[in-house]
Amino acid sequence: MIIAIDGPAASGKGTIARQIASVYGLHHLDTGLLYRAVAKAVLDAGYQPEDAGHATEIAAKLDPNKFEESALKSQTITDAASRVAAIPQVRQALINYQRAFALRPPGAVIDGRDIGTVIAPGADVKLFVIASPEVRAARRVAELRGRGESADEHEVLVDLLRRDERDSRRTVAPLKAAPDAHLLDTTHLGIDAAFRAAVEIIEAVRAGRKRR
Ligand code: CDP
To answer: Which residues, 6+ apart, have CB-to-CB distance to 76 below 8 Å?
Structure first.
């Protein structure tokens, strides 16, 4: 079983994906970490995130088993991640790993921006998770402060909107719901309620399949 979970920044897709993977006994891949890891390696090497040649070289050599996740969450890397993610060759260099991950038995929950559209268009269930920009910014601020970082609500909101815009406008694999994705709006849902809503959609899709 492959479950694709896409959506804009801080919409809650990562939390839902982790919980769904654990309950259904599936592997979980947060594909944002791949772009973040490329961004960090590019910056560490002293290059600009827009430097397509070096970013692509780094993406091709990336070892996704060696991430230090906590080092990838800073605002600088977050912003650079969406810049390297707009480079078509960088995305191309990361496709095989993601597709192979999706095919590992017994299946996977994969979250990102282009999972239902590009990485796993044949996924059994596709969710597109959204929430209002203000709610997303408040969640990201809480997350940052929880990690001891200072965060200004307005700045975080501006950053989210800028990143959504960049992710949606890029020519290759833009942030977009697949035509067969189920929309899940978590604006008024807490973590538990969002998880239950996701399970309901997944179970409805599976029941519909069995009946056919
Ligand atoms: O957690 P948050 O939603 O803020 O970000 P993320 O999912 O870790 O993704 C960071 C950046 O990576 C995004 O802004 C996208 O530009 C890029 N990304 C992408 O292009 N495609 C994916 N499948 C996942 C992330």
So the answer is: 43
For the chain, how far is it from start to end, CA to CA, in angstroms? 17
Q: Which ligand 1 atom sits nearest the alpha carbon of residue 140?
A: 4
Token pair 């995130």 in the structure block, residue:
49
Among all chains, which residue has been given the structure tokens 């969640």? Answer: 139
Q: Is 22 exposed, middle or buried (0-12, 13-18, 19+ CB in 10 A)?
A: exposed
> What's the pLDDT band for 68 if we cut at 50, 70, 90?
confident
Residue with CA at minimum distance from ligand 1 atom 2: 9
Ligand 1, atom 13, lies closest to the CA of 82
User: pLDDT by residue (tens digit) across 155-168?
Assistant: 999 999 999 999 99
**Ligand 1 proximal residues by C-beta, below 6 Å:** 9-10, 14, 31-32, 35-36, 78, 81-82, 85, 112-114, 163, 167
Query: Residue 211 — very low, low, confident or very high, per pLDDT cuts 50/70/90?
Result: low
Mean per-residue pLDDT, 132-154? 92
The closest alpha carbon to 20, from 173, 174, 175, 206, belongs to 206
Nearest CA to ligand 1 atom 11: 82
- With contact defined as beta carbons under 8 Å apart, do 3 and 127 qualify? yes
